[in-house]
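Schema walkthrough. Field components (list of strings):
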Amino acid sequence: MLSTLSPSLIHFFLLVVGAAILTDPATATDHIVGANKGWNPGINYTHWANNQTFYVGDFISFRYKKFEYNVFEVNKTGYDNCTIEGASGNWSNGKDFVLLKKPGRYYFICGTGGCSNGMKVSIVVHSLPSPPSASISATKHSESTKHANSAAAEVTAGRLSLMVVCRALLVGLVSSIVMG
Ligand SMILES: *[C@@H]1O[C@H](CO)[C@@H](O)[C@H](O)[C@H]1NC(C)=O
Ligand SMILES: *[C@@H]1O[C@H](CO)[C@@H](O)[C@H](O)[C@H]1NC(C)=O
Ligand SMILES: *[C@@H]1O[C@H](CO)[C@@H](O)[C@H](O)[C@H]1NC(C)=O
Ligand SMILES: *[C@@H]1O[C@H](CO)[C@@H](O)[C@H](O)[C@H]1NC(C)=O
Ligand SMILES: *[C@@H]1O[C@H](CO)[C@@H](O)[C@H](O)[C@H]1NC(C)=O
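Field assembly_structure (string):
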């Protein structure tokens, strides 16, 4: 009985676990600006940004000499003109992690003069890619930022029910092994 049932059971079990892992937010990426060159003058960060794909939930992080440089989040005017008036955020720890919460375009510049020497970076953050079709329908609405909170609750509920299904499958597998 085990030999005829278990391959499809195991296959389904792996599918369910795979879907749960793929929708896990723990897979967020930390995009280190400038990679091993960090946040410094004389680097083309457009070039760096073109080689990255940013998703909601990822981090962009800046590594630089504290007190010498810093980071301001500005709008397009601030980016084009190297001005920090009306900046929506600033960081100055020398190792700063910025969570990318929403899709859209972001602009970051250095506020200590480095901007005119290339210390500016603009990125586009994408919505999370749609989960594979094997996944639960509860994640369907996650693209809508308006309903992000209720979608998150639905996803959590979906993952909870996945856990319940996984446990039931495990119990089924173990008991069929024991009985077989
Ligand atoms: C930086 O690189 C981008 C794309 O690689 C290029 O279009 C741009 O002209 C460069 N900027 C400078 C100041 O060299
Ligand atoms: C782009 O990124 C990949 C891996 O992230 C790296 O191997 C490659 O050298 C990068 N290319 C450029 C032009 O920076
Ligand atoms: C940006 O700077 C340019 C000249 O560098 C100036 O003509 C323009 O008015 C500035 N824009 C803003 C919004 O300050
Ligand atoms: C950017 O912010 C500044 C200061 O708040 C404002 O004057 C300017 O119009 C804004 N530019 C854009 C493109 O939103
Ligand atoms: C930097 O951010 C803090 C809040 O985190 C704010 O109080 C301060 O005014 C900002 N500084 C500038 C120069 O925008």
